[in-house]
Design goal:
Number of helices: 16
Bound molecules: D-xylose, nickel (II) ion
Distance between the termini: 41 Å
Strand content: 5-15%
Number of strands: 12
Largest sheet: 8 strands, parallel, barrel
Shape: globular
CATH class of the largest domain: Alpha Beta
Helix content: 40-55%
Radius of gyration: 24 Å
CATH superfamily of the largest domain: Divalent-metal-dependent TIM barrel enzymes
Length: 442
Amino acid sequence: MTEFFPTVSGPIPYEGPDSDNPLAFRWYDADRVVAGKTMRDHLRFAVCYWHSFSWDGADIFGAGTLDRPWITDPGDPIEAAKQKMSAAFEFFEKLGVPFWSFHDRDIAPEGATFAESAANLEVMVDEAAGHMERLGNGLLWGTANVFSNPRYQAGASTNPDPEVFAYAAGQVCLALEATHRLGGENYVLWGGREGYDSLLHTDLAREQDQLARFLTMVVEHKKKIGFEGTILLEPKPCEPTKHQYDFDVATCFAFLQKYDLLGEVRVNIEVNHATLSGHDFAHEVAVAVQSGIFGSVDANQGDDRLGWDLDRFPMSVEDMTLGTYEILKGGGFDTGGFMFDTKLRRQSIDREDLFHGHIGGMDTLARSLLAASAMLEDGALTDIVDARYGDWDGELGTGILGGKTSLGDLRDRAMDQPEITRRSGQQERLENLVARYIERIA
Ligand code: XLS
Ligand code: NI
Ligand code: NI
């Protein structure tokens, strides 16, 4: 069998923070126990198939740049797909990553008809099952690409043409079954082209109802086939459409409530989608946790000055620490994990660069885990937050929240009260505290 990554023997070893070896982890020590669980079980890393193995570096301004010998056309599309899959599994094995993720069209070529596409998918799911058995790795999630083919130009479930809805439903049905067959822990629905570019030809109410019906059918089918993974929506505010319906976590929460899907569907939060929606990653996690819909994370970051989905590997320990802190505070991942929905930069053309990107991302998140869990264990911030709201447990607070006090009561009470004493919010002190936890990681 061709070896696609001959310069890396793998599995990538853990060598500690003093190591200068670029092909070693400095922080991610899979077996190290942190707050009662190994790093492997806390972080649940996954590599994505699409950007890492199906993409050759092409962008809207130019052709592919990356050295990707497995993306060739040997004449037979299934042989090509098998070759790509062996490159992917060689990479998963050498990196030493416990999970992977795919779209149906990443692993199997689209055929001339629906039936042909279905047959291709079946062959490639068998192939993947063989690789997974050999390697003993897991599938974090599967999904369907219902946005690339021109038939989806006006969306999949939100299309004005019910024929397109029906076709997409068939495709998602097969992708869900494939995910189930491969033991997937989740099934993801990113909105793709579920949104609009112009209100002049869009019926918002109909499109939302269609989306809800589609999602309900997915939930029904999940139960029918006995899939025990979690169904996840992936919020994103824009791109490719001007306004995506799954704008952010709060929007998804409202949607799930309105259509009675709470308890059935959670969210997959992408770090850079949070940025694009004008939020911090930590904010999106916190909103999901408090709404009971936190599921999984796509760990790719953006760039503060470029307003599109850049899919960079996460390199900011500070940003990731704040998000990881919210995840841990909420009890950590259940079926979710940190998935690298990440792209290399277009000039990082060597195959080995795929290792450097993932090693850096995994180390960033391992450091974030260490800082966040120390903060949580010491109660460094929780004690301050508890004290800050402590008066709500007193007579006044419980009276108000218990519904015993009226607006008029509070008017009367205010008549005899002296001016209120204010307290410092100490934001800078707390920011320094977080910085100290990050400095102290060991
Ligand atoms: C696009 C999304 C996509 C999903 C999977 O912005 O991040 O890659 O994660 O369809
Ligand atoms: Ni994503
Ligand atoms: Ni994205």
